[in-house]
Amino acid sequence: MPIQHIAEAADWERALDTGLYDRSTRGASIAKVGFLHASAGPRQVALVLDAVYADVTEPLVLLTMHEETLHGAGLRVVLEPGVPADPRGEWFPHVYGGPIPVGAVAGVEQIDRPQPRVEQNRVVTGSTTGVPTNVSASVPAGEESAENAAASSLIEAHLSRAIDLAASNAATNGGPFGALVVSADGQVFQGTNRVTATHDPTAHAEVEAIRSAGLGLGTFDLSGAVLYASCEPCPMCLGAALWSRITRVVFAADRHDAAAAGFDDAAFYEYFEAPGRRDAMPVVHHPTDRAAAPFEAWRGNESRTAY
Ligand SMILES: [Zn+2]
């Protein structure tokens, strides 16, 4: 899918000399920001022009890149919230891995703006290195679907990989489930169902991917990460995602597809949703005098690591 980036023409001219484009947004470098800010489709380009470049009078160009080419150059494309603190806001493609080789840019076009714009009722909540989401942008009508299609193509790429993992696992020695955890900085950790192979009923693909991410990143806190699963996570995996502070969960097949294939996901959901189903596995509260002792030991341990 095409990924677009607004560049100052002078910065692009300099990139042509050096062979590398190293700007992220308005003078901030990729090295400083950590990634290249980009847009998926004309609607997001319009949003960024309005929110970040409205007062820029220097000539601008629009760089068009293709995700496959960027991957070929060793770069990663991750869809992330424009404002990290607001995962419900607008999501943009971010390119990680360093400066962009000019050869990875497929197209360059001038951005024609009618006239330099003055500040007009602009609401800017982010810095120049973040893209505000609550701006009143002039969005061309009918182009929202193009942007949505571009954004969903990134999600589909991750889901497609999870599905490939699930299918190959099912064809060998495991259940038909695969999952990815994509960290906030774009690192990808994968998991497949290993229940029968390891005699571990908790070795679901999502749990395996979460364990892999925790080990690989050296932290139990996966805030900002997204869990992509080939099938709707069961209650256990949703619980694991909550405990790991995963920011968002995206799945392909649903619990009914899993039930149709003979898995208990739908029944377990009913266990939590309908109190009357608890007789499938009674859970008994039996208070004792010593029940609070572990919490007292926890509170008394000055060197504890809170989580
Ligand atoms: Zn599960």
UniProtKB/TrEMBL annotation:
SUPFAM superfamilies named in the record: ADP-ribosylation, Cytidine deaminase-like
InterPro entries assigned: CMP_dCMP_dom, Cytidine_deaminase-like, DUF952
PROSITE patterns: CYT_DCMP_DEAMINASES_2
Record-annotated CMP/dCMP-type deaminase domain positions: 153-264
Pfam families documented for this protein: dCMP_cyt_deam_1, DUF952
Database matches in CDD domains: nucleoside_deaminase
Protein name: CMP/dCMP-type deaminase domain-containing protein
Lineage: Bacteria, Bacillati, Actinomycetota, Actinomycetes, Micrococcales
